[in-house]
């Protein structure tokens, strides 16, 4: 993979120019895009910005995020050819830092569940996950050093785990969702994909304007959470979590086995009600005027969502708020938790984007989550884990993920 930190270090040392660093991206895209299909739109005439700390860095942006001068088609024929007038704020922040948007990465229709044409770079017969399929695959295939995606259920962490990329779903609202097609306004979160945790930390620091040091807490306290309420993992995911706990312990962490409060299971079950109720409102215009053009799985989900009463949504929100209060108490004793990033390696076939059951709770809680890729491999496919810190402690999540990543590399 192309490392953001490595490319910038080589530019700083004079080993690369911004132009030659950018050319590495173009060459990688030319080599792999034909078989991967990570991009909905490519700007083959793009060039380095000539300014800023990310000068020479090419970025892929998920195709539900507005970009001036490029199509934003939402993965749907309803928006074929649509070109926004302005960049979304997160895109403006990247450009102000000197990055160049090389293209729009594929998304499932409206960031839902209908699969894209994108293939997994580690096994072309396997799904790359979704909904941020193109962003995860573009980074995992080494085509770009940085990509932007979104998560409403598990759409950043899960595809990152499947494609072997590092990724962060930041704390809710850390990155603005203005200019991002809404699916569920209390859940949608903008996230980043990169080769490693140091790359994520640098990118998030530049985009959010907040320092992200990678120094972990002294003798960190880390809980292992198996999320039994979400069902059994596959053996590879269980092995990855066990390996993560062992490596963190060897690195000086104090490892706790954690039984989550009962409110977590209730909130996990409530996620679908919140998501679908909000989606029926966020996509009301498309549903009312273009129902026949909505992708099949999403269309069926929206059909069912029409019957969700406001009272059920309000009850689900109360369950979520109770779980958030309990999460504050849980994290009062812990610096972070580790848990499964996905049920196992990427499933074979293209009929599904995989299962987000180990991601939904943490999206609902709004906590920062970091995928550490490749703790184990099964049949050449990477399997990661996610490190989760308290709300607004994104730097801690990244620092402890970095600790685990270094321990993995040294083992």
Automatic annotation (TrEMBL):
Domain of life: Bacteria
Span list, region Disordered: 112-132
SUPFAM superfamilies: Amidase signature (AS) enzymes (SSF75304)
UniProt-recorded name of the protein: Amidase
Segments forming domain Amidase: 41-395
InterPro entries: Amidase (IPR000120), Amidase_dom (IPR023631), AS_sf (IPR036928)
One Pfam assignment: Amidase
Similarity-based family: Belongs to the amidase family.
GO molecular function, one term: catalytic activity
Species whose genome carries this gene: Enterovirga aerilata
């Amino acid at each position: 993979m192309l490392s953001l930190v490595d490319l910038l270090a080589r530019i700083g040392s004079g080993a690369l120019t911004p132009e030659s660093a950018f050319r590495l991206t173009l060459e990688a895209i030319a080599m792999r895009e034909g078989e991967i299909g990570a991009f909905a739109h490519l700007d083959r005439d793009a060039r380095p910005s000539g300014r800023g700390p990310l000068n020479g860095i090419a970025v892929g942006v998920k195709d539900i995020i507005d970009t001036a001068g490029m199509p934003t088609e939402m993965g749907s024929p309803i928006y074929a050819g649509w070109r926004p007038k302005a960049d979304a704020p997160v895109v403006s922040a990247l450009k102000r830092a000197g990055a160049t948007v090389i293209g729009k990465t594929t998304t499932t229709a409206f960031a839902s569940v209908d699969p894209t044409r994108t293939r997994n770079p580690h096994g072309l017969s396997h799904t790359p996950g979704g909904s941020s399929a193109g962003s995860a695959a573009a980074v995992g295939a080494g085509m770009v050093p940085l990509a932007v995606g979104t998560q409403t259920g598990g759409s950043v962490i899960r595809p990152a785990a499947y494609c072997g990329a590092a990724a962060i779903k930041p704390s809710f609202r850390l990155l603005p969702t203005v200019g991002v097609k809404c699916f569920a306004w209390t859940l949608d979160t903008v996230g980043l994909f990169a080769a490693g945790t140091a790359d994520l930390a640098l990118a998030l620091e530049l985009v959010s304007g907040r320092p992200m040091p990678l120094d972990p807490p002294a003798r960190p306290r880390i809980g292992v959470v198996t999320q039994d309420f979400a069902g059994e993992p596959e053996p590879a995911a269980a092995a990855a979590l066990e390996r993560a706990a062992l490596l963190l312990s060897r690195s000086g962490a104090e490892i706790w086995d954690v039984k989550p409060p009962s409110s977590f299971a209730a909130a996990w079950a409530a996620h679908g009600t919140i998501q679908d109720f909000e989606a029926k409102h966020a996509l009301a215009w498309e549903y009312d005027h273009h129902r026949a053009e909505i992708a099949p799985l999403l269309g069926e989900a929206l059909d069912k969502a029409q019957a969700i009463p406001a009272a059920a949504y309000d009850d689900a929100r109360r369950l979520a708020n109770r779980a958030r209060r309990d999460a504050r108490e849980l994290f009062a004793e812990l610096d972070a938790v580790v848990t499964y990033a996905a049920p196992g390696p990427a499933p074979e076939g293209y009929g599904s984007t995989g299962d987000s059951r180990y991601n939904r709770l943490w999206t609902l809680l709004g906590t920062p989550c970091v995928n550490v890729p490749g703790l184990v491999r099964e049949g050449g496919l990477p399997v990661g884990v996610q490190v989760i810190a308290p709300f607004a402690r994104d730097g801690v999540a990244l620092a402890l993920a970095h600790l685990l990543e270094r321990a993995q590399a040294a083992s």
